[in-house]
# Entry
Amino acid sequence: MAKNLGNILRNLRESYGYKQYDISKYLSLSNQAYSNYETGTRTPDVSTLLRLAQFYNVDFYLLIATLIPADFDYSNYNVKSDTFNMYKNLSDIDFEMLHNFRKLSSHDQEDILEFTKIKAVRNNSK
# Structure
């Protein structure tokens, strides 16, 4: 299941142990305004998305891709559709893996990457 922006924001906030109040203060918003982002009642503007991406140390495309319709025609724009589509199609597990992976040291990331390569080879040989 692809994630929507509200779910992503809630999962990020909860994974760091923050309350909605904490994030709303960081963004200089009312608690209700931020809550509306997580529930999908309202959509944050681009500058807010950039601040959130920086705060959580996630790729801006991860957040913005959730707002682009699946049938959007990229041909008239100077963007790479595969970048957006990659993020749009993240499952809950994909998102959690990516988010936790980015928290690791580069050495630990290399170890995990090597481990996943080994597992993939083993699964493909079955």
